[in-house]
Amino acid sequence: MRLRSLRRRIEFNHTILNLVFILFCYASKNKLIGGKDTQNKPMINRPSKKIILYWVLGLFFILGLVVIFTDLAEDVWFREGFSWDASIILSIHQISRPWLDTAMRILTQAGEAGAITVAILAALFFLRKHNSLDAAAMVISLMGASAMNTLWKILLHRPRPNLFPPLVIEKGFSFPSGHVTASVAVYGFLAVLLWRNRHYVWAIFSASWIFIVAISRIYLGVHYPSDTIGALVFTSLWLFVILLVRDKYSRTSNTLFRRLLKKPL
Prior knowledge:
Elements: H1 2-29, H2 49-77, H3 83-93, H4 98-107, H5 113-128, H6 132-156, H7 178-196, H8 200-219, H9 225-252, H10 256-261
């Protein structure tokens, strides 16, 4: 039984890795990764060793995320479970206090209503600064991640934890966590932009909300730790794609919408 499970896992991961490699090659061929804009000119200069190193490290990082997520999703799909899930969630539950229960109920909203509110405010801010590219990227990041999260939940249909009475009532399936997904899509996107603009403290503050929301979901008893890890990993992959496309359009045009408006009707 274990040998059959290992064989399934190897075949599953091999298929996914092949798909990621094909996508990476497609992105490189279409200049979505690295290099300057060459819309009208062929690329003459060979990429530097530094850029090649970034590409290689980026590829290994992405492959690592893919392997982690596929491993989690495969175990959820075949209902094999994780031995560490129950021990972690019960350990966190042991520190439960009435005041902490209230705090976690409030903090966890940062991954739902809070993330939606921040995304709307950030998009309006970008539009006010005539930066419709980042406004569009923010909205697409959240909406796309939420849509894929729903698909994963329906496909894998993992029941929610029942190790102790949850502190909040949640409907729907468990894997991956929707709150963590929204947090990575919004706070992760903002953290990258802030870090690129050397606002390091604000970038760390924004990214910290991802982990705060993840801990709150486990504490409240509505998600396994593997649910939050799965959401963190797959949304990070989605965010990588969003930033890849965003950077491509940023090099070739001031804004996404301005490019569209230039086309004759």
